[in-house]
Amino acid sequence: MQKIASLLQCKKVLQPFGQSLALRSCRTYRHLIPHYLALGLLLACAGLPAWADSFDMGLKLYAERHYDTAARYFLEAAKRSDSPILHYYLADSYLKLDRFSEAQAEYQKVLAIAPNSQAARLSQVGLQELRNILNGTHPKHWAQAGQVLSDKPDRYQGSPIEGDNYLDLVTEGGKIVRWSLKKQPLKVFIETSPRGIRNFQPAYISRVRQALDVWTAVLDHQISFMPTSNKEQADLRVTWVNGIDTRGHQDESGTDYTAGLTLPKVSNSQLQGMDIRLATFDIQGHPQSSETIYAVAVHEFGHGLGLLGHSDNPKDIMYAQNESVVMPTKRDRNTLRQLYSKAADVDNLPPDSRVVDPNRQAALDKKAEQDLQRLEKLANEKGSALNWLNLGVAYYQKSKNLSADQASQNHPLYIKALEATSKAILLEPNNALGYHKRSLVYQELGEYSHALEDIQHASQIEPHEAEFYMLQAWYLANLGQNGQARNALNTFLIYQPSAAHSQDVARIQARIQQNTTRNP
Question: Among 209-213, 233-237, 479-483, 499-503, which stretch is predicted with the lowest mean pLDDT?
């Protein structure tokens, strides 16, 4: 009762004036000047609620800047009360720990519980600070974003990994593809005002943010996220579509799904980003509920963190289709932790910063061959567009390992890649990915006219996909059509201005210059 007695003493010296509360004198908290702490003490003292003891301990730890431990006490108190001040302090602790998504959720909870309270006004201040971070005007947090911390371990170190996992099913040809724990927080863009999207609901936004927090907890907060309004600078980019693959398709188990899609962006063995698309309608044309959006977002964020395949157990959140599962199971948690416990083959650090194991490539080649055989079996047995597309991509990836002497238009890998991607297009003519992937095969063959035709078709289906315009510029430049190449490149840079000094843009500009020199 000593802690509660100290709270009672504080109650006598808190006096409101104007729009704030002044802390005149308090033996226990006299070193704390901010008026929002005075408000917290006043609310904690009133009526000696059951959560007062946990709240009191949280305040002391908060005052000593032990925000991580303070947050645990505030969270414990919040389990027994919906008091807005509890959620405010929990949010503020999360903010100071750079746990931005969780902070935002708690601030918004305060606004929902007591919109006209002092705690709500203070939460608005906290949300403004978050907006400053989002807009890049908060130097303390923005300076930390995206920096490589050399003294930070790059492998998961947390809860013991005990029990089953399915890591072998979710690696890309055996490669470990994940985000570096040295380069945090990851910047997250969530589209808030989509154009031309029917059934979009603002409630979806908070559900997507909650889904992101689920995975933060799985990795014991060793991975963190920061909101950004700049889509091109984001690591994870969430956008909305009315539906995915309008004809519908089947996964390897033969079940239809169109709820979400995650596309990794990898260039020169470096992870550039993850594009996550969420559909507002299901395959039957029914509007998605916010609960379904949450379940799908949890699943897609699992892909976004590096789980690039699916579990074989329908009870897992990473099973191909199971919207009734809304939280990662122990197998899901074990798998993500295993992924981040291993050295990355591909991550968001420069490739030359990674130490290459000479024996690793042989193991990867063996795994890639096994995966290729599995994909061939799936495509021939199931006959779905997705399986044919995956098979075509696998053939294409393998063809890139051919030597200059081996590479020729008659090589079986090129022929098989074209056949597989063409079958995918035949089954799903409105899927831009099929045309995109087939254009890459044509590019390897030097057939730029066919490549251009395919990528222009892909742009008609998805006119806002920046990469398609970059490829158009490259194909046009190789066809000597400099004016159109410049136009396509300018369109690409409108969508992705941060890429102005990239190697891809420099390569296109160099080819255009070569054409100009040869044919002035």
Answer: 499-503
Quick check: pTM over 0.85?
no
Under 8 Å between Cβ of 441 and 396: yes
Distances (CA, A) of 85 to 46, 90, 350: 12, 8, 44
What is residue 129's predicted lDDT score, i.e. its pLDDT?
80
Average pLDDT, rounded, for the chain: 78
Distance CA 55, CA 70 (A): 9
Structure tokens, 480: 């000597």
Pairing of strands 270-279, 236-241: parallel
Choice between 487 and 385, residue whose per-residue pLDDT is larger: 487
Per-state percent for the chain, helix, strand, coil, to nearest 5: 50, 10, 40
400 vs 139, which has greater pLDDT?
Answer: 400
Is 458 a residue whose pLDDT tops 60? yes
Q: What is the C-alpha to C-alpha distance for residues 430 and 441, in angstroms, rounded to an integer?
A: 19
What is the mean pLDDT of the segment spanning 489-505? 85
Cα dihedral 509, 189, 348, 171 in deg (nearest 10) = -110
**pLDDT, tens digit, 9 for 90 and up, residues 47-67:** 556 678 888 888 888 888 888
Sign of CA dihedral 174, 184, 294, 284: negative
Q: Please state, in angstroms and as integers, the Cα–Cα distance from residue 59 to each residue in 42, 49, 67, following that order.
A: 12, 15, 10
Q: Which residues pair with 9 in a beta bridge?
A: none
284: enclosing H helix or E strand: none
CB atoms within 10 A of CB 137: 10
Backbone dihedral region of 396: left (phi > 0), alpha (psi from -120 to 50 degrees) or beta? alpha
Q: CB under 8 Å to 196, separation ≥6 — which residues? A: 242
- Give me the torsion for CA of 119, 122, 124, 128, rounded to 10°: -150
CA atoms within 13 A on the CB side of 514: 11
Dihedrals φ, ψ of 141, to 5°? -80, -40
The neighbour count for residue 46, using CB atoms within 10 Å, is 12
- Three-point CA angle 341, 316, 366, nearest 5°: 50
The strand pairing partners of 63, in sequence order, are none
Contact 493, 470 (CB under 8 A): no
Which phi and psi angles does 148 have, rounded to 5°?
Answer: -90, 120
Mean pLDDT of 27-42: 38
Confirm if 16 and 38 have CB atoms less than 8 A apart: no
